[in-house]
Amino acid sequence: MATENKEQYKGVYVFAQQVDGELSGIALELVGKGKQLAADLGTEVTAVLLGSGIKGLADTLGEYGADKVIVVDDPELKDYRTEPYAHALASVINKFKPDVMLVGATAIGRDLGPCVAARVHTGLTADCTGLDIGDFPLNPIPGQEDKQLHKQLLMTRPAFGGNTIATIACPDFRPQMATVRPGVMQKGERVPGRKAEVIEYNPGFTPDNRYVEILDIVKNTKKVADIMDAKILVSGGRGLGSAENFKILDDLAAAIGGTVSCSRAVVDAGWKPKDLQVGQTGKTVRPQVYFAIGISGAIQHLAGMEDSDMIIAINKDESAPIFDVADVGVVGDLFKIVPKLTEKINEVNAAKAKTE
Amino acid sequence: MDFTLDKKHAMARSLFKDFAEKEVKPLAQEIDETERFPRETVEKMAKAGFMGIAVPKEYGGQGCDPLTYVMCIEELAKQCGTTAVIVSAHSSLCCDPILTFGTEEQKQRYLPDLASGRKLGAFALTEPGAGTDAQGVQTKAVKDEEGNWVINGSKCFITNGKEADVYVIFAQTGTKLDKKGRTQKVFTAFILEKGMPGFTFGTKENKMGIRASATYELVFNDVKVSDAQRLGAEGKGFPIAMHTLDGGRIGIAAQALGLAEGALDRTIAYTKERKQFGRPISAFQNTAFKIADMATKCQAAQYLVYAAAEAKATKDRYSVEAGMAKLYAARTAMEVTTEAVQLHGGYGYMKEYDVERMMRDAKITEIYEGTSEVQEMVISGALLK
Amino acid sequence: MKIVVCVKQVPDTKGGVVFNPDGTLNRAAMLAIMNPDDKAGLEAALELKDKYGAEITVLTMGLPKADEVLREAMAMGADKGILVTDRRLGGADTWATSVTIAGALRNLDYDLIITGRQAIDGDTAQVGPEIAEHLHLPMVTYVQKVVDVDEAAKTITVERQFDDRYMTVKVQMPCVLTALGELAKPRYMTPGGIFEAYDKEVTVWGRDDLKDVLDSDIGKVGSPTQIAKASDKVRKGAGEKKTDLSPSEAVDYIVGKLEAKHII
Fold first, then answer.
1. Quick check: B348 pLDDT over 90?
2. Fewer Cβ neighbours under 10 Å: the N or C end of chain C?
3. What are the distances in angstroms from CA C214 to CA A114, C35, C103, C135?
């Protein structure tokens, strides 16, 4: 059954994910995107902040552009568990009736999103990489022009391992829900001192069999630089030949101030850990410069990096698909080119340091 | 007559192919070079049921037909000839005679362990003086006053030697006069186990191909076994050996077929990649026609091998079908792998390329479990009798 | 213990993607496989069966051809297969799919429902959690390890992966788990298992076999999301490709580009 009284649903809401009392990057990205959508819809962006002892984060959300922050602060929400979180978010939706509800496509959001969408009976589009406000259908059906809906959320997402792209609408149900890939949307400019209206709300929590019991939490002790935050990525593929050969990429990354990442083949071969993997099954990155070295450019890989500002590819195979997206492509032997490139960059840097 | 695989056989093939590509291929080059017996692969195959494909379920096997078994050998051989022969010797030459000629007690005692791969099997007929001519067998088994057999002698070129736990062996137990009044040796088959007092292993052979399969000399020095270890009737060893080898030849034919197909696959891929004079060498008709010829031979060999498997499933005697399959598949293996090396040019002679190993592996298929000449004797003998 | 494993047949995007001449995906030319996360979930179920004893039912929704993944699952050791197939179920989004599967599951007894985290064709990771929601069951997604089962207390303890940590959680059964690919390395089928799988019957259910399901919640009609536009991914055009530079020339070329953009 389609949602009744659709017109009662107003505003763009975003789930402001926090972990251990720290806002996740995606929370601010969604506030940023939500603000743009809200402007198109002539409405406001509201952040929904769930947790325990986290009210203080509302200020940050305000500074990044949230007009309102709904805070559900309850001890049951200390660590993420599906049920109390789903109950909290579904209760917020039922009470405040948002038109749009965005959630990050993180390991938390991809659990929370579907659970809440099923509970409030609406559609959910997963892992979106583009969000726009527009008409549905995109073009009116001749003779049924009056049936075309306006100001709909149009959600764009890749499918089939990045081979196809689909734009999805949720015309008859509210809220229109999407999970959004981290790293794709831009967070807004921070305005220190900007305040959001804070609304505290607690739907009440009654633990039942759906509240799982947390026995232990093990944090990854190894702090690896997050490749999603890097401005310059030096990414290696199967062409490197071995884990040891990544040394030449480490050197280049050190010279240019970048971070090393890799393709799926490298992770499969056990040369590098999974959190350095770029691609459909790894991370989506959009650095200023992306070096693709010895990476052929399987479609799954391209899906994770093709929005980089400048892509520099070095590969001995002239027909490698990576050259289809590269701004700067060099066909040649990476083992000869990369060390020389590192050397040259070091020279340039040294010369600049002298003149300054 | 149906030349397409039904769903269960098609799925079985996809299983064997998947396993061979993931588990067998990565080791093939290394074990060839080091002559290391791939014990870990045997364990994985055991887990997946490959060591008892044609053994009935009641004896702990998979209960499949000979066609399923030959597809397994074929797919393994596409990646590694050694791995294929380990399974073939174990299944065709040890499980099969125990299943066919063993007493119920022997089947219960040996087959569940063999079919599950907890134990590995081998077969020993050949001796230094007895290859094609079985009358040359010198190993003797003599009954002592308590009714036990005492076995003395040695066997050579035994596949899975030392690695195997269970051995089907043949020894002379007497003589008889043939129709022409000549004295002929009479043989009896026995089941021996590794570790029996007096049963030891001699030298390991250093071979041209299938280098990781353990090929050993077996030495019997007053090996005393009870009559319960006798396989089949006393004096019936020769027909048991011949019947077993008929089955074994189908396995070896499948191994040869797989080697040929594996070399063909690699050659097709290589000739499409390798460029000379500005185009892939597959674009030259000289190359293309050779590939057409290789593929046609492979297809013909496959039909013969599958027909032999079908004959084993439905007939009591299938010597001719097995002989033809082995004769043709082995010849094809040698021809196709040799041509594959040629089409790879200088690279084909290098150990980095699989076809170098496949050509060496292929040669043995024309020799063991009855040379090509023996197959011609078997086939012509049946036609001209 | 009774376990239901939900599996999906998907085109194999890993072994190379095949395109039609017009640039669209050639699904017919691509191998259909059991979705990898689902297969890991099936293996986890088989390991529970090995350890504690269990009856495993595999359930799939799809075209009649999806029978193949059920046979594969049975050849690996699952006991029964159920195929949910009906024209009226076509065009379903994750909501309508999860309603359908939940409707099928209502006919079954289970202690544990396992699904893969996500399928490689859609990558949504939504159907598993939505099934749990429709059935009002506890759920744990992103399961990387099964730690323990307490059969008396009817609880299962698992490790749940997050981006920067994992949690060990204890859940009341019956419950839904969604499996990560790393949960378990799938075993091979056995040849005998394949023969048995094809000798067995697969149960086929249509729309009328679904329990407590409204027509307005299934198929295309019951799908809240609708496709506005589907297209091949438009890739940005390639820039330059230099094929004949010496290593030194290549370095100068790259450094020039980096300097032009003020990167160095």
1. yes
2. C
3. 20, 28, 10, 15
pLDDT recorded at residue C183: 94
Tell me if B90 sits within 8 A of B115, measured CB to CB.
no
Any chain A CB within 8 A of the CB of C152? no
Question: Which chain B residues contact residue C191 at CB under 8 A?
Answer: 12, 15, 49-50, 53, 62, 64, 68, 72
Residues of A within 8 A of C127 (CB-CB) are: 114
Q: Which residue of C has its CA nearest to B11?
A: C194
Query: Residue B184, SS3?
Result: strand
Rounded Cα distance between B348 and B356, Å, is 6
Between chains, do C75 and B11 touch, taking CB under 8 Å as contact? yes
Residue C24 — pLDDT band, cuts 50, 70, 90?
low
Residues in chain C closer than 8 A to A300 (CB atoms) = 13
Interface residues on B facing C, Cβ-Cβ cutoff 8 A: 7-8, 11-12, 15, 18-19, 47-50, 53, 57, 61-64, 68, 72
Closest Cα in chain C, distance from residue B116 (Å)? 11
State the DSSP code for B95.
I
* Cβ pairs bridging A and C (under 8 Å): 258
> How far apart, in whole angstroms, are the C-alpha atoms of residue C52 and residue C40?
18
C75 shares contact with chain B (CB less than 8 Å) = yes
Please give the backbone phi and psi of residue A205, each rounded to the nearest 5 degrees, phi first.
-125, 125
Of residues A138, A220, A323, nearest to C241 (C-beta) = A323
Where residue C18 falls among pLDDT bands split at 50, 70, 90? Answer: low
Q: CA B84 from chain center: how many Å?
A: 7
Q: Token digits for C76? A: 């690996």
Q: Considering only CA atoms, which of A96, A98, A163, A173 is closest in space to residue A136? A: A173
CA–CA min distance C37, chain A (Å)? 12
**Half-sphere exposure of A119 toward its Cβ, with a 13 Å CA cutoff?**
24
State whether residue A285 is helix, strand or coil: coil
Judging contact as 3 or more Cβ pairs under 8 Å, the answer for A and B is no
Contacts of B68 (CB under 8 A, 6+ apart): B9, B12, B53, B54, B62, C191, C195
A271, A243 Cβ separation under 8 angstroms: yes
Question: What are the distances in angstroms from CA A295 to CA A236, A313, B272?
Answer: 6, 8, 22
Neighbouring chains of B at 3+ CB pairs within 8 Å?
C
**Residues of B in Cβ contact (< 8 Å) with C75:** 11, 15
Helix (H, G, I), strand (E, B) or coil at C101: helix
Mutate to test the interface with A, among C35, C251, C259, C262 (most CBs of A within 10 A): C251
Return the active site residues of B.
369
Inter-chain touch C194–B57, beta carbons under 8 Å: no
**C-chain residues within 8 Å CB-CB of B50?**
191
User: Could you give the angle at which helices B354-365 and B237-273 cross, rounded to 10 degrees?
Assistant: 160
Per-residue burial over C170-201, b if 16 or more Cβ lie within 10 Å, else e, is: bbbbbbbbbbbbebbebbbbbbbbbbbbbeee
d(CA A166, CA A146): 25
Condensed to tens digits (0 to 9), the pLDDT of residues C169-192 reads 999 999 999 999 889 999 999 999
The shares of helix, strand and coil residues in chain C, as percent rounded to the nearest 5, are 35, 30, 40
Asked whether the CA dihedral A199, A204, A209, A212 is positive or negative, the reply is: positive
DSSP per-residue string spanning A122-166: --EEEEESEEEEEEESSSPPTT-GGG-EEEEEEEEEEETTTTEEE
Residue B325: CA count within 13 A, CB half-sphere: 33
> Model's pTM, two decimal places?
0.87
Q: Does C169 touch chain B (CB under 8 A)?
A: no
DSSP, res A172: T
Peptide bond before residue A175 is cis, with ω within 30 degrees of 0 = yes
